Task: structure prediction
Amino acid sequence: MEERLHFFWVLGYNPNIKNPKSFNEKVVWKKLYDRNPLLPIISDKYMVRKYLKETLEKSEAEKILVPLLYVTDKPETIPFENLPNEYIIKPNHASGQLIIVENTGKQKKYTIIHHGKNTVLFDCKKTRKEIISVCKNWLSLPFGFRRLEWAYQPIKRKIVVEKLLRDNRGKVPVNYGFAVFNGKCHLITVYHGSSDDRMLARYTPDWEHINVQRENKQAAYEKRPNNLESMIQLAELLGKPFNFIRVDLYSANNCIYFSELTNYPMSGRVRFNSESFDFELGSKWKLIPKYWR
Result:
């Protein structure tokens, strides 16, 4: 009942879960009924590395994986003194929670991002204690439980530390989200900026611009990436075992890096400026119960 009420409150129509047609209805269906045993593995930001190495050649997977610096279930063991100047700290069992560590020249800056809210701290012993406390809090809490996001619940919780990527301009690279339905990409979402000033743009796989977003600012049209075809091929390969997955990739200096695999975009609350597009996108997704067997 709570799921239905929140769906209606956000999107303005009652979901049909027994016979879902729209994209958002099918995301809710996925939360309730998709028990593909791969889902907890690919939702785990540490274990997903194993999935990539098994799906791709190990050498190919290593090329696109962001360098792993440290992983632990005991945040107090994070070796701050031995880490590079810039890196990212995040829990492996959640989304929208991370700490970006940047070199500002004189000292390191820690930006704690938690569900869209940013807190900025600068390097000192007190800051490191705060970072450890934040990480311990993340590990103590389940993610997505109230939103019925099953795939996160079995994950053995850890803290992951990875290199912070930069492009040749010194900026964090653009993130591309490839919506893959039954092994075929049908929509690309390009994310610009951080959580507090995020802009996005959507394109077809042929790079035709689609203006359908409602919540975020519309990003300006950008030139088709030189490696678009390679990114689509990779996304479709990684998404092949699932009836739907969003494959998130970075492109930096014409190189492709893996970001994450997303099962439940906005937990089935993606607000488009046209309800008809919600249903059009949903028509690309063929639901087959227990498709993974």
